[in-house]
Amino acid sequence: MVLVHIVLFKFRADVGNKVKQEFLSQIKTLKSLSCVKSQRLVVGGPSITTPIEKSKGFQYALVSYHENRTALAEYQASSEHERVTSKYFIPYKEDLVRFDFETDQADETLLGF
Predict the structure, then answer these.
(1) How many CB atoms are closer than 10 A to CB 106?
(2) Cys-Cys crosslink for 47: which of 55, 63, 65, 79, Cβ 3.0 to 4.6 Å?
(3) What is the pLDDT of residues 33-90, one digit of tens each?
(4) Phi, psi of 65 (to 5 degrees)
């Protein structure tokens, strides 16, 4: 089973684009971690949802894939994850939503695995 990890990020209103761009650049480096399945980690934003109110103010999203719960735990505990989140997001954070789920084995081919 492949585990899908989704995170939505909301920065405080006073945070400028330079900080957000550095965050995006740094968080993309996490795809190189061995616990990210096939280096599949995608970050995007800002939200283009219309009407924008449906985004609930969340500006960026991350989707990554992991072999199992152990690999996700390794990702969360990695020094690189800690470095990126503690330096480039936590000081500027308004809110964050995390949602993880295991896919059905039959759906793995839809994900390209």
Answers:
(1) 7
(2) 55
(3) 999 999 999 999 999 999 989 999 999 999 999 999 999 999 999 999 999 999 999 9
(4) -120, 140
**Nearest to 1, CA basis, from 70, 63, 61, 62:** 70
User: CA torsion sign, 49 to 51 to 53 to 57?
Assistant: positive
**With contact defined as beta carbons under 8 Å apart, do 18 and 110 qualify?**
no
Q: How far apart are CA 42 and CA 87, in angstroms?
A: 20
Q: Please report which helix (H) or strand (E) contains residue 81, including its range.
A: helix 79-88
Cα 57 off chain centre by: 16
Please report where in the chains the tokens 């949602």 appear, as a residue. Answer: 99
What's at 45, amino acid-wise?
G
> Are 98 and 7 a contacting pair, CB within 8 Å?
yes
pTM exceeds 0.85, yes or no: yes
Q: Are 5 and 72 in contact (CB under 8 A)?
A: yes
